[in-house]
Structures are given as structure tokens and as C-alpha cells.
Amino acid sequence: MLLTNNLGYPRVGAFRELKKANEAYWAKKISADELLEVGVNLRKENWETQRSAGIDLIPSNDFSFYDQILDLTLTVGAIPARYQSLLDKADRKYNLDLYFAMARGFQEDGVDVTAMEMTKWFDTNYHYLVPEFVKDQEFSLTSEKFLHEYEEAKTLGFETKPVLVGPITYLLLGKEKETGFDRIDLIDRLLPVYEGILSKLASAGAQYVQIDEPFLTLDIDQKTQDLYKRVYARLAKVSDQLKLIVTTYFEALSNNEETALNLPVHALHLDLVRGENQLDTVLPKVPQSLILSLGVVEGRNIWKNDYEKSLTQIAQAVEVLGKDRVWVGPSSSLLHVPFDLDNEDNEESLPKEVKNWLAFAKQKLQEIKDLATLANGDVDEKTKQRFEANKLAAENRRTSTLIHKPAVKQRVSNITDNDAKRTSVFALRKAAQQAKFNLPAFATTTIGSFPQTKDVRKWRADLKKGKITQEEYDKEIAEETERTIRLQEDLDIDVLVHGEFERNDMVEYFGEQLAGYAFTKNGWVQSYGSRCVKPPIIYGDVYRPADMTVRWSAYAQSLTERPVKGMLTGPVTILQWSFVRNDQPRETTTYQIALAILDEVQSLEKAGIKIIQIDEPAIREGLPLRKADQKKYLNWAVRAFRVSSSNVEDDTQIHTHMCYSEFNDVIEDIAAMDADVITIETSRSQMELLEAFAGDFKYPNDIGPGVYDIHSPRVPSTEEMVNLLRKAKEVVPAEQLWVNPDCGLKTRAWPETKAALESMVEAAKILRAD
Ligand code: GLN
Ligand code: ZN
How far apart are CA 351 and CA 349, in angstroms? Predict the structure, then answer.
């Protein structure tokens, strides 16, 4: 019999209960016990949901108050030294103060410590807290959360499968905080802790343990492959009673197939969505005793499963392995999808027909169960009906006129190389633009948004609730925009912005105005800790029915003689921060968005907005996990940006903006975007940025290295910025340099914003005088 195997379930609650409880606890509005109670309830509900859906292997220890890697860091006792004073105070089994100090920093009772660094979980939008290792790193079993949760479930009557991130993946996810060692060599100190964990679970009666090793789908060297063999040989020895399941996801095993398949474990999980065809090569190599868990239901997107397709994959495995050695599950943990489609009832933003193509976490459990039932062959009436409904939905999606717009598809296939190239080379454009704008050296500008104060957010909320009329709202926005224009004039900034007060979010704002987009009311997905996002859904061919930004940009321009920059979000970022359709390549969807953005660029141009910024902060995070796939991605991502920005006059100045400084490895691709000006974040490390520009490759166009960090309320001194600019001048010719903050100012308050910009303009003037 095929079993159903779930890898992990979303934990923030259908209505973000966990976020609200965490924030209440941080604000000291609820006690630690009250917070812990919220956790108990969320876990219980999740286990019940999964059991009633008919899941055989239900995970535990997939819950976390903040992040599962942080939990593991506490479990193995890799607590950085700066938290020692909090550790000494630790008295309860779940030491929340220490835990949240590591997550968010701590400033109280004379203690002042920074948080651990956060970074993206593989190529998802989830962020984990990066483990920090020192040369003499020691590990010891410090928290037994895994055991408490297993036992808690057991008491409630659920036999669960505890989930752990594996030791090799854990080490590889971390960072060395000192030189002179390689963190992977810490494995022999870490292994005893894992052995301890497993033997505790065995004593408690656990039958299965899931160990996640997603690094088995990445580019790993021979040494790491050998390590996998050695480590799992040891872990397998801990207990005869425990059945270990090694879980891989986010890519195919590819060159790690031999290694993964020969680990001495009970079952191996494969991602058959990202690694769609890997069964062909995997099946002939599966050893006698190994069970394969097939990740056929996508764990990180919201589309209904195509039952017929999945059943073909399952049948292929069953034919070789038999029904007892095949399990059915999601491709990855369901952490990356929203809770429950049944909580969506707004037909205006999510039409019924579109809703019928979707499945959130709860619906995916049903899909997993249905697929197992269908593959087992003993099919009840209800499952039969759902199978028929599934086929109908798939058929409807293939032909729906809501999705398929022949004119949009035609336009994408008509894109030529000329459409992806400015008419003239940069030098000629620069001359034309200089003639038009006559900007000084070290021209000053900002990245787009100005403070989104309580008032601004209230106007938006009031408009949504119908508390104020559209006219009243527009009047407020107009006045705030005008004040911002006057302020920038007073500050003597050269290229102004309108301030983005009318925007909630840089992707949602455009998604709401593009055809082919749907929105959820409760489609929350955890991004990190208490932060959740509600990605819009691209379900159909995308086009722009009407102007999106012209009104406010043109209004702002009408108020001043100085140039006002139009503000757009780029095609790759719009794609990257949405749930993307899976019925055509991402590349095609990106080109559709690129053409919609181009239409907007041309409308702005016609309205007299001659400087236009197209933000692409997400271009780098779309990079595929495997090196071999990266070049192809960069080629189409860069080309899509060029399509969105090329069919314009020479004297129209295109800016782009990116929020990171680690682009040494992709700098040639960023240069190939051929924006006239790029503004970038440099706050984390000024040196890193300058290194990128000091190398052999000379960045050809204009560049504005962020001269101050907008992520902190701290006001930088003029002198600091002058120093940074002088350093920049040593590696980038002065004629190429712009002066700007390193990102948008929407999270800042007005006083520090004014003070910082004043110093910034002063710094630019000092540089001009040099
Ligand atoms: N123009 C946007 C802003 O200023 C850019 C935001 C971003 O880079 N993430 O807010
Ligand atoms: Zn930014």
C-alpha cells in the first residue's frame, strides 16, 4: 500500500495567529505562557488537519516560533558567545528571551546584543537565521524541542514523524565567523549530538525520523558526497527501531544520485516537480530495500495538482518498486504555500474560475491522499468524483479565455533583438541626456519612496474601508506629494521623485493594475519570523489595460522645473515576488510583464517624464540553485529588463535599482542590462561594493553607490559620506558617479530623512568642489 508522507505544514496559522501572538509577546502584552499556549493550539490544529486528510506520516518539530534553523541552533547548542549572559539566565525549557534575542537582537537590562544574520532559504522567499561557527566550535544537546513536540503529539493521540534538518545541510547553511577552518570539518563534533537526538527519539518510541538534506540537490564536491556516506552510516547505527527518511527538495539529485540512493536509510524523498524527470535515471538504481517518497504535489506554488500527470509518475515508480516501496507527498514542506483556499471568498480579486485552479496547503493534503488512493486502486466514490473534477479543472485551465490572450502571446513571440537594445550606445545617450538635463557632477537623487507615515497608511486603509472617498484620498496623496517635491527642492536635490505615497507595495501596486493577476485575502506565507507576505497570483497572460503610474508622476512633474523620476518595478522582480503560473515557462511570463512595463515607460515618456527608474531588486534572487542553469536564467532575465526599457528616445534616461551589494559574480550581467544609471545598496559593506568595481571588469554606465544605510534611523555625517564618495572615486571615474541613499525611504521617519538628505547633498557639493 502506498503511504502518504507530508514533509511540513505552515505554522503561522490561517489568520497569522502566530505573528499576532509573537508581536503581542514582544510588546509585553501577553505572557510567555500565553504565547506558548498559542503554539500548542496551532500544532494541535495542524496535526488534526493532517490526520483528517488521511496523511499517514505526519510531521512534528516542523513548528517554530520564529525559524526552524534557529531552533536547531539552540538544539545543538551552537549559541554564539555574545548571547552568553542571556544563556546564563536561562531557566525554562523554552527560553524565549534568549531565543528571540538571537532572532531579533536584545536591548534591555544592560544587555545589548545584535541579532543573528538572516538569509534566504535556498531560492524561496523564506528567510532563516544563519548559524555562526567559530574554529573551536563545540556542540551539545541544549534544547529538546524535537522531543517535547513528539511527546506532546503523542499525548494528544498523534503518532508523528519528527523532522530535523540534517547535519551536513546544517553546517553548509552556516557561516565561519573566524578564519582558518572549514565549517564542514566540524561534522565530527556535531555528529554525537545528532546521535543523541536520534537515540532520545527512539527511546520515546518514535518510528520514523525525517532528516532534510536539500544540499543533496545542489552542486556539492566529492568530499561532501563522501561525507554523506560516512555520516549516514553512523546515524543509521543509532537504533534498529528508527526508520530514517532522508528528504531532498528544490532540485533534482542529478550527479548526487548515486550518493543519495545508497545512503543506508529507510526512505529517500525526491522533488518530482523541480526534478520532474529524475525517476527515469533514479529508478534503475534504487537498492533493494529503499523506499522512495515521491514529491509530486508542489510544495511551493498554489496550482492544483494535475492528477493524471502525477499518477503517471507514481505508476512508473510502482512498476519498478511495488506499492509498498512508494510513498506520495508534496515536493517540499508546505511551509511555502498559504493555509486554506476555503478562506478566500472575494470574487472580485479572485474570480471563481481562477479559484478552481488553485490548491493551498489544506487542499494539497487532500490531493496527496487522493493520489495515493487512486494509485492504490481501491477507489471510493468521492475520490472518483474529485478525480473527475480535477481533470475538468485542468482542461478548463488549458483553454480558458481568462488565461489565454492570443494578442499577448503574439506580441511576445514577435520580440526581436532590436526590441531588446537601446537605439544608441551609452556614450551617445549620455551626451543627449546631458544636453537635456544639464545635471551637475555627482548628481543627487533618491530611490523612490519617502516615509510612509501612520497618516499615509491610514488614508489607504480608510479608502479601502469606505471611510473616505476617492476624492478625499486623492487630495491627501496630492498634498503629501507636493510637500515632498517642495522639500526636495529646498534640499537642492537634482533629480526628484514623487514619493510613492499611493503605493502599498512595489509589486502589488502593479499587479492590481495588470490583467492576468489575482489576489487573495488570507493567502499569507511566512517570509521570516513574524513577517508574512501575500504574494499576488499570476494566472493568465499579462498585459496593461491602462496607464498605471502616469497620473501621480505627471502631477509631481507639473509642480517643479526639476526633473521628476518615474518609478516602476521591473519584470523580473514582479515575477519573482508573485506566485507564477506553471503552464508556461517563467521566461515567457517575464516577457509578457516586460512588455506591459514598456507600455508604461512609453506612456510616461509621452507625458514628459524623461527619467524613469525600473527597480529590479530581485533579479539576483531568481538565480537557479545549480550553476549549470544560471547563465540561461541571467540571459533571459537581463533581456526581459532590456525589453522593458529599450524602445525609448536616446535622451530618456533609464535608471535601475538593486538592493544588495554581493554582485561581484554577476556584474557583467548587470552591466548588460544597460541602464543609464544604476543605484545600489552598499550599506552592509562599502568595501564589498568597491571590490566589485575595482576588478578587471569596468562597469561602463553611471552608478550611484548608496552613500548611507536607510535600514537604520541613524543619521550619517557629511564627512562619512564624503569619505565614501572619495573612496568610490578611486575605482569609478567621477563622471560616472551619482549620490543617493542605498534604498527607498519608506520605512524611515521624516526628521531623520530630512537630516540625512541634507548631509548627503552637502557631501555631493563638497565632492564637486574637490
Ligand atoms: N522604489 C522603491 C522604493 O523606493 C524601491 C524599493 C526596493 O528597492 N525594494 O521604495
Ligand atoms: Zn532597494
Answer: 6
Given pLDDT bands bounded at 50, 70 and 90, which one contains residue 187?
very high
Query: Is 753 a pocket residue for ligand 1 (Cβ < 6 Å)?
Result: no
Nearest atom in ligand 1 to the alpha carbon of residue 613 is 1
Going from the N-terminus, what domains does the chain have, and what CATH number goes with each?
Answer: 406-769 (3.20.20.210)
d(CA 421, CA 639): 9
Centre of ligand 1 to C-alpha 672, Å, is 21
- SS3 of 438-490: the string is CCCCCEEECCCECCCCHHHHHHHHHHHHCCCCHHHHHHHHHHHHHHHHHHHHH
Quick check: CB of 300 below 6 Å from ligand 1?
Answer: no
Q: Is 447 in the pocket of ligand 1 (CB under 6 A)?
A: yes
Distance of CA 320 from the midpoint of ligand 2 (Å): 51
Q: Which residues are the active-site residues?
A: 711
Tell me: the pLDDT tens digits for 451-480? 999 999 999 999 999 999 999 999 999 999
* Rounded-to-integer distance, Cα 220 and Cα 207, Å: 30
Closest Cα to residue 331, out of 270, 254, 260? 270
Place of cell 532559504: 121
Query: pLDDT tens for residues 278-297?
Result: 999 999 999 999 999 999 99
β-strands 243-247, 118-120 pairing: unpaired
**Average pLDDT along the chain:** 95
Q: Look up the pTM and report it.
A: 0.95
- Strands 118-120 vs 127-129: parallel, antiparallel or unpaired: antiparallel
